[in-house]
Specification:
single chain, DNA polymerase, domain 1, 2 strands, 93 residues, mainly alpha
């Protein structure tokens, strides 16, 4: 059953889970370009929470380490591999 929730900014939204993320706030914070704009919101939040803001930051991580981050899943890996390869970078081995 969906519950009406209100975020700290006053946006009202319905959620059926305990997830506190406001869809409107999430849309406002999504980057318009760059590798972080290519992954899902949970994956982006996981990367940002881990301090990964640039492709150079990302290249210091292994795929296995990334998959341990809460909210990060296998679906994000191909997009990130592409972004790294475009800059002649790769995940740490």
């Amino acid at each position: 059953m969906k519950q009406l929730k209100t975020c700290p900014k006053g946006h009202r939204f319905y959620k059926s889970s305990d997830c506190p993320v406001c869809p409107q706030c999430e849309a406002e914070t999504k980057p318009g370009n760059g590798f972080l704009s290519e992954v899902s919101a949970p994956a982006r939040r996981a990367l940002e929470a881990a301090g990964i803001k640039t492709l150079e930051d990302l290249s210091r991580w292994t795929e296995k380490e990334l998959l341990k981050l809460h909210g990060f899943g296998k679906a994000a890996l191909p997009k990130l591999q592409e972004a790294l390869a475009a800059q002649n970078l790769s995940f740490r081995q």
